[in-house]
Amino acid sequence: QVQLVESGGGLVQAGNSLRLSCTASGRTFSTYPMGWFRQAPGKAREFVAAISWNGGNAYVTASAKGRFTISRDNAKNTLFLQMNSLKPEDTASYYCAARYSTGTYFYTAQSDYAVWGQGTQVTVSS
After folding, report:
1. Which residues, other chains included, contact 34 with Cβ-Cβ below 8 Å and sequence gap of 6+?
2. Mind listing the pLDDT tens digit for each residue in 46-62?
3. pLDDT band, very low/low/confident/very high, at 103 (cuts 50, 70, 90)
């Protein structure tokens, strides 16, 4: 079974950038579609971005489109989320997730994913 560990969170001012990383160990990372989700205090976890196994297909939620980019380096078993022009409403714990499947699709529902990391906190001050 794959294990996921997120890193790269922190406290930044609005307008600045962060790059989150999700490092996978265990089973073969390179064949799995991956996703990023976030959860703000008192709110439900929500989808942020997803990417197919080879990076050929990717999708970012509308509220982050043009600011966030999802990518992956399969040689390094690592998933990334580049976050630019951060806003206070981006403040949340960010989680990466892996789906045990193959194919060229990306997936946006939490129920699509079998394995989750422990999360990394992103705080954006105004």
Report:
1. 22, 50, 51, 70, 72, 79, 96, 97, 98, 99
2. 999 999 998 899 999 99
3. confident
